Hints:
Keywords: Membrane, Transmembrane, Transmembrane helix. The chain is mainly alpha-helical. The protein has one domain.
Amino acid sequence: xxxxxxxxxxxxxxxxxxxxxxxxxxxxxxxxxxxxxxxxxxxxxxxxxxxxxxxxxxxxxxxxxxxxxxxxxxxx
Length: 76
């Protein structure tokens, strides 16, 4: 296999999977946090929101590309 194949797999599967795992990890840490420690509360909340937003943006982009491909085939 060549480098292009592995880079494609990395972009399509590894980056969204890593963002999903990071989001789930920060949700668990946010729930189990010390309620009095505002620094960790803010840190896990920011990580959770950013990773969740990036994951949803990538998934929405994939869905949009799939929709565009179906529209292209439908109008052939």
